[in-house]
Amino acid sequence: MHGRHGDAGHADPxxxxxxGRGAGKGVRTGGEGRPGRRRLGVDRRREELMAVALELFSxxxxxxxxxxxxxxxxxxxxxxxxxYFGGKQELYVAALRSAAARLEERLxxxxxxxxxxxxxxxxxxxxxxxEEHAAGFAALLRGGPANRTGEVGEIVDGVRRRLFxxxxxxMGVADPSPVLRVTVRSWIASVETAGLDWLENRDVERSALExxxxxxxxxLLGAAAAHDPTVRLLMARLAGQVxx
Length: 244
Known about the structure:
Elements: H1 42-59, H2 67-74, H3 78-85, H4 88-107, H5 115-132, H6 134-142, H7 150-171, H8 178-201, H9 206-225, H10 229-238
Helix pairs in contact: 1-2, 1-4, 1-6, 2-3, 3-4, 4-5, 4-6, 4-7, 5-6, 5-9, 8-9, 9-10
């Protein structure tokens, strides 16, 4: 990979070229060159470019991935990528937004179970996404600058905020105490770390990992209850010991 964005020394933006004209010197796809020329619909081609970009961004720092790398991996011309996205930053942001939207869609549940049941189901849907869209998940959490400023940071933080809000809604909490807020956010960070570790190692059964994370949430709430009486009441209510 290389960080050079490259100029659009532009061919017809409607072409998918197999010749490699204008390609950079970055990492390639195993030396096989580009796939043959193909004609795809606008939406399908755009989705394909984003999928390819997510795969590359999940394996390399964003600064190391160029438009040429994405074009070659997708079997498209560099000009076509510029035509759809304008530049690497626009492609990067669009790809991450796509991954974030798919994850958020997956997390929406029926909401007809107990809080613990809904949390368990939501975690299963979360890991369904991790397994089925590994590149998107990894790129969403790993990609981009370390300080996560600007649009990239907003995308990642937006997913976390919505997950945080969803969990509180499942618990029936409208205004969390500082202790509960820290506890839930800490658990979300643990889930993200576990997802990345599972993708990298796959040495724990997924069902066992999900059960472990649910137990961790219960343990975290138990620890928080020792410091906050409102969390103790929440724990009692969730356990069915107190009826509202």
